[in-house]
Amino acid sequence: MKIMQCPLNGPRNISEFVYGGQVEPMPDPQQCSDKDWASYVFYDNNAIGIVREWWQHAPSSYWFIAERHNASDDILRTYDPGELFSERVDFTTGENEP
Amino acid sequence: MPLGLLKYGRGSDYPFERQPDLPGPRELKKHYDVVIIGGGGHGVATAYYLAKYHGITNVAVLEKAYLGGGNTARNTAVIRSNYLTPEGVRFYSASVKLYENLANEFDFNIMYSQRGQLTLAHTDATVRAFRQRAEVNKHFGGRTEMIDRQSIAELVPCLNLDPAQLPVLAGLWHQDGATARHDAVAWGYARGATQRGVELHQLTEVTGIESAAGQVTGVVTNRGKIACGTVIQAVAGHSAVMSQKAGFPLPIVAYPLQAMVTLPVKPFLNPLVSSSALHCYVQQTSRGEIVIGGGSDPYPLYNSRASLPLKESLIASAVDMFPFLSEMRLLRQWAGITDMTADYSPIMGLSPLKNYYLDAGWGTWGFKATPICGKTMAELVASGGEVPTLIQPFTLERFDHFQQVNEMGATAASH
């Protein structure tokens, strides 16, 4: 059984966690080109190596960040997103604006 | 008994000259017109059609391990065309048609067996989706229809129609569904290609790609450099890693896909059966083994290890469908690395480099496309970059324009 270290709940079975995609800076949807937005949506860092990812501990709905090697599956570090994000990321789609 | 036979039985020599299916290893040349990276089904199929239809034989297929040893050997060999989008159905139908005559064309038995594929619906929403798929398929000449519980029971008497509180409501019966021996497909293409002058180089890994002014000039391998006119990458599982060597990214995420097989038993299951809700498909091979496959691993990984959670969930679903399978012994479990795209369709055709063509993003749907993929990629190379109509929807650029070919519903867990 593979164990993941949850920053909130401690070591838990990996089956309790849900993968939520890579941590990538979001371009401003109002200002960026279609190509930049496509790059944000479709293109991950898929080189073999260490990747930084969003994970959720499903029973407690707690989101955190994990650094994992995408070939050996070693989980190197897990931490609260507060380490990377100091404020809430908001965006508008533009559809609701006059 | 003829005297000759008796003599042969006592002797140690085989009385007939027998040509080996593939020529032995040889030195790499300095230059090839076409270099194909990846000696799996797709790579050798492309080489075969290049030589057969276009007379292009100064071709090298470079394989880092051995012929057909990657995802060609790891898939579960389902051949079908009951997809959802017109683009997908047209493309995969053309592949099914080529498969039907492949053994004859090769003079090599690929153990092609058209037994039909049955997909089960357990919810109203799935029934609606199946109706649409049946209509799209019929429109493009495929044999696909909706069938009710009674017909399903007649078709597969040993199937449990009420698995895990998810009663089967209806089925999508795809008569063109088939299976074949995957090694034989790769060997048939490789034999046909090498007989026509193509060189297959196994244990030859491409470590770098050299380009100048937006054009590939050569590839670097563990056996030295080669100059080349055109390069095709057909490296399922590592497409994004290879494209980075060429200097551009691909919108692909690699997930492992696990499958398993039991010890062989007498034939009892003719069609290939898959369940949309249990994320499981079950089929019996020509050798009698029961192949069990399902959905991908829950998170991305470049690793073909097998895991216990997947083993448990796959077996649980398979036993739900066929309760007596709980008595069977498992022979092996394995994984392949699948190049998943966001829309569950391949990426074929041109790349940012002028003479570098893509055959990538084959996720969990690559084996069934082997013949048509080889044929269309060969056309693309022979025409010097004119993309055949059949594969135009699968261009890499579709992601930049948000014009995906969404096959997720028709692909997930039914392969």
Spell out the helices and strands of chain A N to C.
Answer: EEEHEEE
Output mean pLDDT of chain B: 94
Biggest interface goes to: A-B, 21 and 24 residues
Biggest sheet of chain B, open or closed, and with what strands and sense?
Answer: 8 strands, mixed
Into how many domains do the coordinates of chain A divide?
A: 1
- Class of chain A, according to the CATH hierarchy? Alpha Beta
DSSP summary, beta strand count of chain B:
18
Report what the structure shows:
The complex is a heterodimer of chains A (98) and B (415). Chain A contains one helix and six strands. Chain A has 98 residues and is mainly beta. Chain A has one domain: Folate-binding fold, CATH 3.30.2270. In chain A, strands 3-4-5-6 form a four-stranded antiparallel β-sheet, with no helix packed on it. In chain A, strands 1-2 form a two-stranded antiparallel ribbon. The longest helix of chain A has 9 residues. Chain A is globular. The relative contact order of chain A is 0.23. The model of chain A has no long low-confidence stretch (mean pLDDT 91). With 415 residues, chain B is α/β, with parallel strands linked by helices. Chain B folds into two domains: 186 residues, FAD/NAD(P)-binding domain; 148 residues, D-Amino Acid Oxidase, Chain A, domain 2. Chain B is built from twelve helices and 18 strands. In chain B, strand 17 and strand 18 form a beta hairpin. The model of chain B has no long low-confidence stretch (mean pLDDT 94). Classes of the chains: A mainly beta (98), B alpha/beta (415). Chains A and B meet through helix 1 of A and helix 9 of B.
